[in-house]
Amino acid sequence: MYLVVGLGNYPKEYDLTRHNIGFMCIDNFAQKYSADFRTETKFKADMASVTFNGEKLLLLKPLTYMNLSGEAIQKAAAFYKIEPQKTLVIYDDISLDLGKFRFRAEGSDGGHNGIKSIIQNLSTDKFPRLKIGIGPQPQNLKAETFVLQKFSLNQMATLNKVVTKSVEAIEDYIQLGLTEAQNKYNGINLGTLL
């Protein structure tokens, strides 16, 4: 069993903001498999379930704000006895340009408050991540302002490609493992395909 987490902010006003790309990716994955999210108040999250490649995947979107994402993940992981190594977290990365992906096995929070919360709540930084580029950040904008902006109209074509490709990336991670997924996705740039 895997826990596949998309990070973002509720409520609706945050839809299509850069910080919510994790939600967009996990929503698209659920849609492909006709899985409906339901609110699980005991986990402070919306959850859905999918079977892929003989594995049960629990899809999770924390209902906490981004900075408290770890609370929901810790509760769900403890309840279902899912190890951190089988908890894939999908989130926005300001240091990567839109169109780029990066799988990582572990590491620091890199200044991302959602990841910081997860590391604190799981008491480890050893959990796989799929980082989705949302940059570049304009020099005149603070990071906290930039991540809460909506994608521009001319970025929507690339964004749609990214969200679609993220479904394949999750599937490949489950099917092929992290190393193969890293080899396949860490060098691609969908932004160059316009």
> What is the SS-derived class?
alpha/beta
Intertermini distance: 37 Å
What top-tier CATH class fits best? Alpha Beta
Strands across the major sheet, in which order? Answer: 2-3-4-1-5-7-6
CATH topology: Rossmann fold
* Overall number of structural domains: 1
Major beta-sheet overview:
7 strands, mixed
Query: Going by CATH, what is the homologous superfamily?
Result: Peptidyl-tRNA hydrolase
Strand content: 15-25%
Quaternary structure of the protein: single chain
The radius of gyration computed from the alpha-carbon positions, rounded to a whole number of angstroms, is 15 Å
Any overview of this molecule?
This protein is of the alpha/beta class. It has a single domain (2-193), classed as 3-Layer(aba) Sandwich (Rossmann fold). Helices cover 35% and strands 24% of the residues. It is built from 6 helices and 7 strands; from the N terminus they run βαβββαββαβααα. Strands 2-3-4-1-5-7-6 form a 7-stranded mixed beta sheet, with helices on both faces. A hairpin with a 2-residue loop joins strand 3 (45-52) and strand 4 (55-62). Helix 5 (156-176) runs antiparallel to helix 6 (178-185). The longest helix is centred in the last third of the chain and has 21 residues, at 156-176. It is globular. The termini are far apart. The mean pLDDT is 96.
